[in-house]
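User: For a teaching handout, I'd like to show students what a predicted protein-ligand complex looks like in token form. I'll give you the sequence and the SMILES for LZKTLF4L. Please answer with just the structure.
Assistant: Understood, here is the input followed by the structure.
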Amino acid sequence: MQKGDLQMEYQFTVKEDGRAVFVINRAHKKNAINYEVMKGLKDAITACKENDDVKVLLITGAGQDAFCSGGDVQLFHALKTEEEAYSMLYPMGGILYELMTLPKPTIAVINGIALGGGCELASACDIRIAVDSAKIGFIQGRLGITTGWGGTTILQEKLSPQSALHMLYSASTFSAEEGKEYGFIQRVVSASALEESMKQLLEPLLQKSASVLRQYKTLYTKRWEANGLFARMQEEIQGCAVLWAGEEHHQAVESFLQRK
Ligand SMILES: CC[C@H](C(=O)O)C(=O)SCCNC(=O)CCNC(=O)[C@H](O)C(C)(C)COP(=O)(O)OP(=O)(O)OC[C@H]1O[C@@H](n2cnc3c(N)ncnc32)[C@H](O)[C@@H]1OP(=O)(O)O
């Protein structure tokens, strides 16, 4: 394959105004997360932490109809046992913990459908802005599993129990406006107004000094360290791995893969 033909599964750029942008670049797979995207996200978060020029991290998906459809079902379908599932779930949970505690503002720009682990990824960001056509759903329950990247533990820090548990129990797909009613989405805009809305959202943040932004985030990170956030995420991940090995999950994934 010619070098020029190589399609990177993600793009990470740092703009002159201090915003860093991570784009999941797998639109042909509704921006599902595979191991390359996981590594790219891990490296991007580290780069943001180490680069004083970066003030804000944005995460979004390539194309117009998907933010992220969760883990790559075709790829992760090969993981059958609890141990094999844990070998993928735990590293991604660690990445979401690093994202959650990055000492800089993080914004999920939900440009389209966000499902399963895609919602967990968005949850780990400080702020979620969505286009009005976006659909969001913690659909893991339909596959006989729970969130497996720490998403439930993260929601416990951001949403009311009634909102979070309804979204999780139902495994329903909600509109962006419904997600806003639950407190999961902070701003809903039309696709055409997204760029302007992002400008309005970012301007006041980019004008603040890095130390002010870092101080605010550190106050939250200290709270999460004090209440054992990562240990609770790990417990959630272990629970998901047990369900992952169950027949209900394997049959649900098989049905998805055989659907066409
Ligand atoms: C802990 C996290 C947990 C985990 O995986 O570990 C999860 O995230 S569980 C949830 C996993 N995600 C899903 O179950 C979503 C599966 N995808 C869908 O339900 C649909 O594809 C949908 C609703 C996103 C879009 O449906 P639509 O009819 O508009 O498009 P297609 O289904 O034809 O999809 C187009 C193309 O993308 C591939 N695709 C979509 N989602 C995934 C995915 N999550 N993993 C891998 N591939 C995905 C789909 O197979 C099609 O590709 P093709 O080569 O044409 O088959």
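For the handout, you might add this sentence: Confidence is low (pLDDT under 50) at residues 1-5.
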